[in-house]
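User: Here's a structure from my thesis project, written as structure tokens. My advisor, Dr. K., wants to see whether a designed sequence matches the one we expressed. Can you design one independently, without my sequence as a hint?
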């Protein structure tokens, strides 16, 4: 049993557990947090982006057929039982869908944590910030860590992870150590 749990951890690719809370304060709280990103954030866009972030999270949970804790689902993806649902899938798909919604005063990117630490599991997420703003002042949009329910927090308040902008992190290829090339995904 211990070996099985250890193998699950090695197969996972990200770290985390399902939370019963899953959010900070729901859609209204996320809307208020987005508005606070800067004086040029349009209130209507903040409201639309908050609603969309929650609906995208739910849609992806259905598409990925999430029925398990994140690490269990990751193991199923890595074993070929499920097609998608690793943290970087969530991060890429959340970012893509938010970008396609065409916000004028908000922008979206991706963050990575633990990429250069061989002892911790790498984790990816999407981030929203005021257009032209700094990602460090942004808000993490992370439905992976709660098994499909949107978890959000300010980047600097999210003490579970030490985030870096994805574009600034060399990627690690499986079994190859740290690579100097950036990932396509």
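Assistant: Designed independently from the structure alone:
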């Amino acid at each position: 049993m211990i070996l099985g749990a250890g193998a699950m951890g090695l197969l996972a690719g990200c770290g985390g557990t399902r939370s019963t809370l899953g959010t900070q304060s729901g859609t209204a709280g996320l809307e208020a947090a987005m508005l606070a990103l800067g004086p040029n954030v349009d209130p209507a866009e903040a409201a639309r982006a908050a609603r969309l972030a929650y609906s995208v999270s739910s849609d992806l949970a259905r598409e990925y057929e999430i029925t398990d804790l994140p690490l269990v689902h990751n193991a199923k993806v890595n074993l070929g039982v499920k097609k998608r649902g690793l943290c970087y899938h969530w991060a890429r798909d959340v970012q893509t869908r938010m970008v396609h919604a065409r916000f004028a005063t908000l922008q979206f990117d991706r963050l990575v944590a633990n990429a250069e630490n061989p002892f911790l599991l790498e984790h990816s997420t999407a981030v929203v910030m005021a257009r032209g703003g700094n990602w460090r002042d942004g808000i993490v949009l992370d439905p992976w860590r709660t098994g499909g329910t949107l978890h959000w927090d300010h980047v600097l308040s999210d003490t579970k992870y030490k985030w870096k902008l994805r574009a600034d992190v060399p990627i690690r290829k499986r079994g190859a150590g740290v690579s100097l090339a950036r990932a396509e995904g």
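When you compare it with your expressed construct, this may help: Residues 65 and 82 are 8 Å apart (CA to CA).
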